Amino acid sequence: MKEVAVYQIPVLSPSGRRELAADLPAEINPHLLWEVVRWQLAKRRRGTASTKTRGEVAYSGRKIWPQKHTGRARHGDIGAPIFVGGGVVFGPKPRDYSYTLPKKVRKKGLAMAVADRAREGKLLLVEAFAGVNGKTKEFLAWAKEAGLDGSESVLLVTGNELVRRAARNLPWVVTLAPEGLNVYDIVRTERLVMDLDAWEVFQNRIGGEA
Questions:
Q1: Does residue 207 surpass a pLDDT of 90?
Q2: How high is the pLDDT of residue 108?
Q3: What NCBIfam families has UniProt attached to this entry?
Q4: What is the CATH class of 4-46+98-206?
């Protein structure tokens, strides 16, 4: 990635706020983000939809009436697709929807998604979640101090299991471990909150793509 910009990202600590300079993509490519999201959603598809052909439905193959001299339309067996309960023509069968997306594209997409949140002022780094020990009310108190009031959806990325447990009951918070940070969850939420350990994991993952 050739175009890089220096973003000043706010860092929240028990002693107050400071800023951290970070090199991230200067330009956001919406199509590349779409490609990564499409790849992620394709991987998640179970691909279990299945229909029966006329050869698989539980009907006799006997011709339902003679070809001629009945005054009726010509038909074969009752399992033909034209009849209700008959087989399905070109219906879905179980399949694997996943495909390979180049690792370089995935890394660029992740870097761009985070850069987009930084550019919008929607990225917050956290030094420590002071006072949060696994209870939702503790997280709500911390969130209020951090300026998170539930009016925007938040993606919370931290390796601290107690913090994730405290936040996971809130409908406006999506929690992830640092290794699980992905483009789809970033773009489907409005704010991104990461602790410094998660930020370091992210930097190692994109490794020079920013």
A1: no
A2: 97
A3: rplD_bact (TIGR03953)
A4: alpha beta
